[in-house]
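Format notes (please read before filing issues)

Several people have asked whether sequences and structure tokens are stored in separate files. They are not. Every record keeps both together, in the order shown below: the sequence lines, then the token lines. Line labels are part of the format and must not be stripped during preprocessing.
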Amino acid sequence: MRKSFDIHSIKNLILTSLKGFSQVMLMENALSGGLILLGIAIHSPLLGLTAFISSIVGTLTGQYVGADKPAIHQGLYGFNSLLCGIAVILFLQNDWRWLIAPIAAMLAAVLMFYLSKYLVRWKIPVLTFPFIVVTWLGLLAAYTIKGLHINPEFVASSPAKWNLPIEGTPNFFLGLIKGVGEVFIIDSLWAGSLILIALFVAGWRFGVYAVGGTFISWLTALLLGVDAELLDLGLYNYNAVLTMIAVGLLFDDKRRFPLIGIFAAATTVPISAGMDLLLYPLGLPALTSPFIISTWLFLMIRRAIVRSL
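Then the structure lines:
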């Protein structure tokens, strides 16, 4: 009995941790999470392993602090943690990063727990806010602590890249695939392709929202004069993809969604440029902050519309 209970518990832990990968894209689907993990592992086996361990750490931390059981089962305590684990491996370069990754994952889960209690009063979803807070504070600490070394290949996006003359013709499909990969801070066609497949596996709407969000942000950035290379890298559409999915899931009135979703996705482009300008002096990346700002903004707009009706 004890052995079967342990096997059942381990199986549930693995499935829940895989759901954490899908929850990054606002889905609850272990199969989709497995495809996303596979994409990350193909890009970098060690990065995939770290992400999976970080998701497990976040899930176990949620259980330890007494988080809501349905939220834990849905993978909501794994997605911020695995993103933090990925960020540690990519942004730092020292022998301690393998130890720092699970610590960052644990901190993200604890922050998720307390923020959930606070923001639920205003019916505001936490989204990837814990990931952003932990990563930004970690990078600021790394700039001042000698034992922590920033990866020399990591360069915060520069506002100088905004309004550059467009050189060449951007490739929409390349930007789409790389853009969904950039949600996980990964520049990989393999990872992006499997993540896009994972979206359609979870439901055709997720895939359509991803394509729609990419097109809207791609067109908006193109009209505003973003360099074609940045569009091909997907740096101006991954926040739009998340925002399009979030707005599509959180807005109940389907008649309003097409217009509101378009506006929400489009706003992530100037917000991304503004966040780059604001954070560049600090040496910090925008990450998914434009997604959070745009989604929260349109949730407040939705609430104002509902109240006025």
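For reference, the curators noted about this record: The chain is about 70% helix and 0% strand. Residues 1-5, 157-166 have pLDDT under 50 and may be disordered.
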